Amino acid sequence: xxPLPTLTQERENHWLxxxxxxxxxxCALLFALTTVSLQQIPLxxxxxxxxxxxxxxxxxxxxxxxxxxLLLESLMLLLLLTLPFTVAGETWFSIGPLNASxxxxxxxxxxxxxxxxxxxxxxxxxxxxxxxxxxxxLGQLGMPRKLVHLFLxxxxxIGVLFQEYRRLRMAMRARAFVAGSNRHTWRSFGWLLGxxxxxxxxxxxxxLRAMKCxxxxxxxxxxxxNRWHSRDSLTLLLVALGCxxxxxxxRTL
Amino acid sequence: MAHIPDGVLSxxxxxxxxxxxxxxxxVAIRRLDYERIPQAAVLTAAFFVASLLSxxxxxxxxxxxxxxxxxxxxxxxAVPAILVALIMQSVFFGYGGLLVLGVNSMNxxxxxxxxxxxxxxxxxxNGGRRALLLGTLxxxxxxxxxxxxxxxxxxxxxxxxLPAAQVVLATYLPLTVAEAAVTGFTLAFIVKVAPELILEPx
Lengths: 253, 202
Hints:
The complex is a heterodimer of chains A (253) and B (202). With 253 residues, chain A is mainly alpha-helical. Helix content of chain A is 70%, strand content 4%. In chain A, helix 5 (131-140) packs antiparallel against helix 6. The longest helix of chain A has 31 residues, at 183-213. Chain B has one domain (11-199): Arp2/3 complex 21 kDa subunit ARPC3 (Orthogonal Bundle), CATH 1.10.1760. Chain B has eight helices and two strands; from the N terminus they run H-H-E-E-H-H-H-H-H-H. In chain B, strands 1-2 form a two-stranded antiparallel ribbon. In chain B, strand 1 (54-57) and strand 2 (60-63) form a beta hairpin. The radius of gyration of chain B is 16 Å and the shape is globular. At the A-B interface, helix 1, helix 3, helix 4, helix 6 and helix 7 of A face helix 2, strand 1, helix 4 and helix 7 of B.
C-alpha cells in the first residue's frame, strides 16, 4: 500500500486477488474503451452500476470515495452547466437570450456517467493492487523496462519522502508558521520544496552507492509471482463478450 | 484542473495525446541510463510529494503543478517522471483517467520540456545567477502553457466545450501566481545549496 491516504483499505484473501493483475488491468482498459464509445443513457447507467458494484465489492471506503468523486466533478459541473447552452437542439428552457437544449443536457449526462463509471472501475480493479504488483504487471504487459524500474523505485521512495515532507512541515508549524498569500509564505514554501529536492538528491546518491555495493551493473530483475491461469483467460473472454454485447446494444437500441 | 477525466475528449485528441507522449517517452527513455534511474526515481517521488503541498492564494488554495521546475531539474527525464506520477494519481487516487493518460501527460510534459530547454540553458550559461527570476518565469510559463494546452484539448475536442475551456483557462490564473512565486524561491535555494542538481549539463 502507498503510505498516503488512498481510497483503498487493507484486506486479505479477497476474491479479486485470485485473478492475475494483468487481467485486472486489461479488464479496466476494455471497460474504459467500451464506456467511452457508448452514447445511450440507459447503457451508460448500466456501466455506472457496474462501477458502483465493483467499488462496493472491492471494499473502497465510501466516504473518501464520495469526496473524491465530488472533486472530480468540478470540471464535470462546469460542462454540465455550459453544455445545455452550447449544444444546438430543441429548447428545453431558456433564461433571457440563452436557450438550454435537451441534447446538451444529454451530452452532459453522458460525460458525467462515463467519467464516473471509468474512475470507479479503475479504482476498484487496479487501485486495489499493491503498487509493486502493478509495476510488475505493467512490465509484463510490455511497458519499457526502464520505465517500470522508475515506477517501482518511485513508489518505494514516495513513502520515505512523504515522511521527510511531514517532518519539515511539522518543524515549520513548531515555529508558528501560518501559510498566507504573502512573500514570507512563498519563500518558506520555496525553501521547503528546495530542501526536499536537495535531500532527495543526496538520498539517491546513497541509494545508487548501496546498489553498486551489491553488484548493480546496469541491470535490474523483475521477480514477479504473477501467474496467468485458465480462469483469467476465461474471465477476459467473458468481459470481452460483455463489452461486445454492450456495443451491439448501442447500435440496435 | 490539469487532470482531464475519461469520457470528455474526442478520439482524435486522445490518439494525438497518446502518440505524442509515446514519442517523447521513446526519446526520454533512450537518454536515461540505468545508472541514473535511482536519482530520477527519488526526484520523481519528491515532486509527487511536493505537489501535495497546498499553497493559499487569496481565499482559496492550490496544489502546485511543478512542471516548470521538473523541466529544469530533470530535463528529458521529466517525461517519464510525469507519466509515472499521473499513473499513480489516476489509479490510486482517482484523479484523471485511463484513456486520457496520454493527453494529460502531454499537457504537462511538453511545457516542462520547453521550460527546461529555455531556462535551463540560460541558467547554465550565466552560472546560476538570476535564479530567482528565471525560476519565477519558468514556474509561471510551465503553468500557463499547461493551462493553454488543457483548454485547447477541450476546445479542439468539441466546439461545444469552448465556454468551459475558457473558464478552465481562467482557473489557472491563481495557480500561475502561486507556482511562479514558490518555484522562484525553490530554484534560488537549489542554486545556492546544491547547484550540481541544475548546473551540471545533461
